[in-house]
Structures are given as C-alpha cells and as structure tokens.
Design a protein that fits this description.
Blueprint (H helix, E strand, L loop, with lengths): L19 E5 L2 E4 L2 E4 L1 E5 L2 E6 L11 E4 L4 E4 L1 E6 L4 E2 L2 E2 L4 H10 L2 E8 L7 H12 L6 E7 L5 H13 L4 E5 L10 H14 L2 E5 L3 H13 L6 H5 L3 H17 L5 E3 L5 H12 L4 E5 L1 H5 L39 H11 L4 E2 L32 H10 L5 H15 L17 E5 L4 E2 L19 E2 L2 E7 L2 E5 L2 E2 L19
Parallel strand pairs: 1-6, 2-7, 8-11, 11-12, 12-13, 13-14, 14-15, 15-16, 16-17
Antiparallel strand pairs: 1-4, 2-3, 4-5, 7-18, 9-10, 18-21, 19-20, 21-22, 22-23
Helix pairs in contact: 3-4, 4-7, 7-8, 8-10
The structure holds dihydropyrimidine-2,4(1H,3H)-dione (DUC) and zinc ion (2 copies).
Length: 497
C-alpha cells in the first residue's frame, strides 16, 4: 500500500496579501544535482524555480541574496524525543525549546516519538503528545507512535492511527525490558498489523534481555563508570537483534522495516544483505555514531562520559574486539560507506537531551541509571555537511539523507524535503564560506547544560531558514515564534522497493 500525498501548503484567505519572497543567486542542491537557480515563494509555498535572473525583484516583499551560498530544502529530522519520560526524569527540551533549536540548525520538520508504555493506552499517549506539542512548536512537527505494550487494543490503535491520525509508523523496542520491550511474538503481531494497514515498523534493535544480564554482571564486578554502558551493549547484540527483526518482518509479509539509530557495522551488514535480497528494509544512523568514539567520549575518566550515554551506544573506533569491518576498518568507516551506498537511507539525531546536573547525575556510581540520550537536533545538518567537507559523501547525498529521503520514508513528500513548485517553502540558505563553532558558549540553543559537540568547528553555517515562507533565522537572530509550527498528518511511506 502506498500513496503520494499532494502538497497541502496552506495559503492565506481570499483577498489577503500573499507575501512574495525571492531567493536569488544561490545554488540549489537536490538529490540529483547542484544547479544555479532562483527560487520564488508565494505565501507559504514555493511557486517556481528559474534560471538566475529569470524573476524580477518587482513585487517581491523579501529578497534574499544567496550569492556564493547553497539553497537546500529545510532539514527533516525523523527521530526526536522532546520531553521523553526516561529513567525517572524527562528529556530536557520542550517542544518549544527543541523546535527553536531545530530552526537554528536548519531543521524545519521534526517527527517526534509519541509514547505508549507498557500498561498505558495508545490514544492517551498520543493525546498527551498533542497536548505537549500543540501551539508550542516553532517548526512543523509530526509523530511516530511508540508501542510499548503490544496487545489487542494497541494493535487496533495502530490501524486507526495510520488511517485517521496521520501517524503511519510505529516504534517497537527489542531492549528496555519492563518499560518499552516487546518479545518476538508481540513484534510479529505488530508487524502483521502494520503489513495490513501499510504502516512502517521502526525498530530499536538491541537484544535487551542479554544486555540486562551483562549489565548486572558488570555492576556485580563494581564496573560502574559510564564506559561500561557501551561495553555491556556489544555490537553483536545489535546485529543479532537487527537480523531477528529482519526475519520477523519477512515472516510478517515483507512489512517495511526501518532500523533506528544504527551504530554497528555488523548490524549494517544485516541490513545490506536484506536490501541486496530486495527487501523493504531500511536504516538510519545519527551523527554521534559517525563522528564520536567510545575512547574520546564515554571512555573519559570519572563521570564525564555520562554526557554521551545513549542507546545504541557510541562505539570504539578501530579496536572493537567484537567487530572487524569488512574492509578491515571499524564501525564508523563502515557507517559512512553505508550512507554512500544507501544501506543507510537517513540521518536522524535521536535527539534526547538530558542535563548533566541532576539528570545524567542520576547514574553516579551506577552507569545503568544514567538517562540514555544525546541532544543533537541543532547540529545534524552541520555535522553531516562536515562529512561532505571530509569527502565522505556528496552534497546531493547530504540533502538526500537529511531532507528528501526522511520526507519520503515517512509520507511527507513533496510537501517536505524538496525545493519544487507546490512544496512548502521550507528552505535553508547554507553558507559554505563561514565556520560554525559548537559549544555551550558558542552555538548552542538546546535546553542542556553541556554539549556533546563542545568545541567542534564546522566548515559551514546555517545562514537563513524559512519555514512555510516565514523567515525563522537570519543574521544570527531567531525571528520565529512558538505556535508557528503545524502538525503534519503523514501518509504512507513513499520509499518502498
Ligand atoms: N535511546 C536513547 O539513547 N534515548 C532514548 C531512547 C533510546 O532508544
Ligand atoms: Zn531507540
Ligand atoms: Zn530514540
């Protein structure tokens, strides 16, 4: 089941003035090339692209000169957790602070994870997410639904949400027993339901039962530092769960399966093999897995490493005894390769920020109590652009993995993810000639007391950001407002084989 949702960029009422914006002299990047083009915007919608100089300034209310700069679709981050309840606390970004940070990062659409935990009702969980987000977002937003308790009621809800609520993807967990965990039978049932109604299953693929044994054994040996978070989640347990999820998705009728936050080369090999066999199996990775290493982050002495505790974990660069990459190098190089090869289709952030003080500190003396998550919604476009500068991927692939494919994967295209007539005027002007210094006293707008990317300097900068024709970021100022962001009702995935 597939369908393509027409652009629904809403327009102002009859007779009212539709602000016209012209972005000129820039180079527009799409999945298929980098072309000098001017972009004309009428109200909230892109109306035309033309050769440089084709449109006159006359009648335009706003002119944006993008000379020497790139013009790209607004970023689409399909994996965020605003205000997620986790480990006795809540992710520290609200929808307001998190979407303002997103805007600063050139992200104009987020897809957040509405939560149903074991014993809770799916509709209550979704209503709670609408309550948190409604009227508070600075950029557009949509939801996936976490199903933390698969039973007859939640299976029925999956079909209803897909058909009526614009929520066509469901995250299941093979980890976190007692909180979000589903066993294989539950996973199979949820996959069968998704196969029937056309939804995508998103999978947190880690063998949580085995991990919990390793965690208890480590704690019994008094191994309590943050680095043991990674050591107790070895990559074969990500690969095994990925393989199991792929097998179950096959048995369930080739339901589209999307593995979230992939960090391990051996898990990637499972996805690559499934894709080689023509399966509807996809995966995303996140900047932390592409750039950060266990040794430099989690492995820092004392409790400092808690800043980088997230699941799946940041892995060892070259010396992971559990994994020798297919080319003889480690996880990171294989993940970059996977991005080039479309074994990894999407880069998201898994944005799940916690402050160090009082939140990460809950795990002092016991790494298993450190809330899992890294804040990154603001930095994905920057960090993946740095991959372009480093020669890891092309400009086109940057836009494809961060804007276009996320929109297509989750039924928002061509409203989102592309600069084309009829699409929402979500546009980022990107300056490749300037640098961005990330850090708590530099560029940092997320509601956190530290940055996982402290001191990183990026060769490029978010220059101007438009969301449905409204300028949100310009001249290093936030000009948007909470409440501008609208809920996007999504269709079915438009990315199947
Ligand atoms: N991983 C995290 O790091 N945080 C939230 C949930 C998850 O799966
Ligand atoms: Zn997860
Ligand atoms: Zn997540």
């Amino acid at each position: 089941k597939r369908h393509r949702e027409a652009s629904q960029g809403s327009v102002t009422g009859k007779g009212s003035h539709m602000a016209k914006t012209l972005i000129k002299n820039g180079k527009v990047i799409s999945t298929t090339g980098v072309i000098a083009q001017d972009v004309l915007i009428d109200g909230e919608t892109i109306t035309a692209l033309g050769a440089p100089g084709f449109f006159t300034d006359e009648g335009c209310d706003t002119i944006i000169d993008a000379a020497g700069k790139y013009v790209i679709p607004g970023g689409v981050d399909v994996h965020t957790h605003m205000e997620l309840p986790f480990g006795g606390t809540f992710a520290s970004d609200t929808f307001e602070t998190g979407t303002i940070a997103a805007a600063w990062g050139g992200v104009t659409t987020i897809v957040d994870m509405a939560v149903q935990r074991y014993g809770e009702n799916v509709f209550d969980g979704l209503a709670e997410w609408h309550r948190k987000a409604g009227g508070n977002c600075a950029v557009d937003y949509a939801f996936h639904q976490i199903i933390g308790g698969v039973d007859d009621e939640s299976l029925k809800a999956m079909t209803y949400l897909t058909e009526h609520e614009g929520i066509s993807s469901f995250k299941l967990f093979m980890a976190y027993p007692g909180v979000f965990y589903s066993d294989d039978g539950q996973i199979l049932k949820a996959m069968q339901t998704a196969a029937e109604c056309g939804a995508v299953i998103m999978m947190h693929a880690e063998n949580g039962i085995a991990i919990d044994v390793l965690v208890q054994q480590a704690l019994a040996r008094n191994e309590t530092d943050p680095k043991y978070h990674s050591y107790t989640r070895p990559s074969p347990l990500e690969a095994e769960a990925t393989h199991r999820a792929i097998v179950l998705s096959h048995v369930a009728g080739n339901v589209p399966l999307y593995i979230v936050h992939m960090s391990a080369g051996d898990a990637l090999n499972e996805v690559a093999a499934a894709r080689h066999n023509g399966r509807n199996v996809f995966a995303e990775t996140c900047p932390q897995y592409l750039w950060l290493t266990l040794e430099e982050t989690l492995g820092q002495p004392g409790f400092e490493g808690a800043k980088w505790v997230c699941s799946t974990p940041v892995r060892s660069k070259m010396h992971d005894p559990d994994y020798i990459g297919i080319m003889g190098h480690g996880h990171q190089a294989d993940l970059w390769k996977g991005l080039r090869m479309n074994e990894l289709a999407v880069v998201s952030t898994d944005h799940c920020p916690f402050c160090f003080k009082d939140q990460k500190e809950l795990g002092l003396g016991d790494f298993s109590k450190i809330p899992n998550g890294i804040g990154g919604v603001e930095h994905r476009m920057e960090l993946i652009y740095q991959g372009v500068v480093a020669g890891e991927l092309s400009l086109e692939r940057w836009v494809e993995t961060c804007c276009t494919t996320p929109a297509r994967m989750f039924g928002m295209y061509p409203k989102k993810g592309v600069i084309a007539p009829g699409s929402d005027a979500d546009v980022v002007v990107w300056d490749p000639n300037t640098k961005t210094k990330i850090g708590i006293n530099d560029k940092h707008h997320m509601n956190m007391d530290h940055s996982a990317w402290e001191g990183w300097v990026i060769d490029g900068k978010v220059d101007t950001v438009l969301s449905r024709g409204q300028v949100l970021i310009q001249n290093d100022q936030f000009l948007g407002r909470k409440g501008h962001g609208q809920f996007v009702k999504r269709g079915l995935s438009q990315y199947l084989v």
